[in-house]
Amino acid sequence: MPADNAARSIGPALAALLPDLRARALRLTQGNAPVADDVVQDTVERALRFASQYQNGTNLRAWALQILFSVFVTRYRRLRRDRNAMRALMVDPCAWTTPEHYVSPEKNVSLTASVRAELDALPEGFRSAVTLVDLEERSYREAADELGVPVGTVMSRLHRGRKMLAMKLAA
User: Fold this and answer.
1) Dihedral through CA 133, CA 73, CA 71, CA 159, nearest 10?
2) Of 93, 92, 125, 131, whose CA–CA distance to 111 is shortest?
3) How many CA atoms does the CB half-sphere of 97 hold within 13 Å?
4) How far is CA 10 from CA 35, 56, 140, in A?
5) Helix (H) or strand (E) holding 84
6) Least confident range of 94-98, 135-139, 151-155
7) What is the pLDDT of residue 97?
8) Dihedrals φ, ψ of 162, to 5°?
9) Of 7, 18, 49, 139, which has the highest C-beta tally within 10 A?
């Protein structure tokens, strides 16, 4: 189905989902209405742009909510990157001219010996995912490429690795 026809076919159903999308966005943004509205707008725009990927007969609400969550996470990460860049610029006004291969001192996360020991005790796949994404702040895609696994596998390993680490540290 061409993209225009797909967008026209799901457009009315997507419009009916706007209250659900806004409610979820408000929960994710902790009640920040302007940001929630931006997230919903980006979600609808992305859903219409990729309407040809929607499979008729499947749950449109679940598909749209997944897009909304993806938009929210992307915005959050971008905001975090921007804050870190501004923090670096406030400390060093020449930070924008620093060569690409330079590693900020903030990147060298120092863990306590007990946390490092628990992290090292995790099985290799989980330890690698946690280290790449959480400590080295790599994207899921970058971690997946480095580990040679699909993005979904990185996400799963990261979730389970964090859970195992949290349980070990709580004990």
Assistant:
1) 60
2) 131
3) 3
4) 24, 9, 30
5) helix 60-91
6) 94-98
7) 61
8) -60, -40
9) 7
Whether residue 85 is contained in a domain is answered as no
Q: How confident is the model over 93-109, as pLDDT tens digits?
A: 665 665 555 455 555 55
Residue 104 located in a structural domain: no
76 and 15 assigned to the same domain: yes
Dihedral (Cα; 153, 159, 162, 165), 10-degree rounding = -80
> Which of 61, 80, 99 represents a domain boundary (last residue)?
80
Tokens 């609808």, residue?
44
Q: Could you give the residue ranges of the DSSP H alpha helices within 17-51?
A: 18-28, 33-49
CA nearest neighbour of 146 among 126, 130, 129: 129
Q: Which residues contact 111 (CB under 8 A, 6 or more apart)?
A: 119, 135
Which among 59, 58, 54 has a CA at the least distance from the CA of 1?
A: 54
Cα within 13 Å of Cα(56), Cβ side: 9
Both tokens of 70, joined, read: 């993806």
50's CB contacts (< 8 A; 6+ apart) are 67
**Packing angle of the helix pair 33-49, 3-16 (nearest 10 deg):** 150
**Which residues form the domain of 42?**
3-80
pLDDT tens track for 110-122 = 678 888 888 899 9
